[in-house]
Amino acid sequence: MATSIAEHALTFLTDGDIVGLGSGRAARNFVRALGARVQAGLQVQGIPTSQTTADLAKSLGIPLITLDDVDRIDIAIDGADEVDPSLHLIKGYGGALVREKIVAASAERFVILVGPEKLVPVLGSRGKLPIEVLPFGVALCLRLLCEFDWQPQLREENGNPFTTDNGNYIVDCNIPRLPSPAAWEQKLLSIPGVVGTGLFIDMAHIVLIQDGDSVRVREAGNS
């Protein structure tokens, strides 16, 4: 019988868990699967990483809380835009990267759901890195990011700057491959006005990969 990564991810949950709910297509599929399990009696509480995810979870009857209500999250489930052999990630094509990173950092286990097309030999292989910036600092951020020759572009939606749930903007950079992503993360965070980057370094514990009708599992330290 075919197994989806969303169904496989549900096997990591137990009654009473606090679950971080990611954003994006893979995360939405998981939230739908979780909603069905909650309706069947599973007792969990969710912490969404975006308003879109919150709205979906509410519609499915998943009880929601906030980070202010708990000391830690048992498990967070999310997707990714790139996964390298060390399970470093690039996330944020959907624009929720800072909230996703906060939830991931609060979780005892961070589980990523991807298709094989998201596996890359080196981060940056798909050529895009989202960076969340304060609107007040966007001009400075764009100017300094241009010094890396990354052709930064302010993301737009309906002719206006795309605004995150935090009220910030997203700058999309055309990046080369980044063989030292941790060093780049620190360099980017040193730019005044940068709130967070799509580089998720040493954060994923488990990556589930949909491989046809089956699911492959990669674990940090054993990938």
Protein described:
With 223 residues, the protein is an alpha/beta fold. The protein has 2 domains: 5-119 and 201-212, Rossmann fold; 128-197, ACT domain (Alpha-Beta Plaits). The chain is built from 6 helices and 15 strands. The chain has a 6-stranded mixed sheet. A hairpin with a 5-residue loop joins strand 4 and strand 5. The two termini are 26 Å apart.
Key phrases:
alpha/beta, Alpha-Beta Plaits, 2 domains, six-stranded mixed beta sheet, four-stranded antiparallel beta sheet, 26% helix
CATH class of the largest domain: Alpha Beta
**CATH architecture term of the largest domain:** 3-Layer(aba) Sandwich
List the domain count as a whole number: 2
- Helical content class: 25-40%
Radius of gyration: 17 Å
Strand content: 25-35%
Arrangement of strands in the largest sheet:
2-1-3-6-14-15
Q: What name does the CATH topology of the largest domain carry?
A: Rossmann fold
The geometry reads as: globular
Low-confidence stretches: none
Average pLDDT value?
96
Element order: H for helix, E for strand: HEHEHEEEHEEHEEEEHEEEE
The helix/strand class is alpha/beta
Number of helices, where a helix is a run of at least 4 consecutive DSSP H or I residues: 6
Q: First CA to last CA: what distance?
A: 26 Å
Biggest β-sheet strands, sense, barrel: 6 strands, mixed
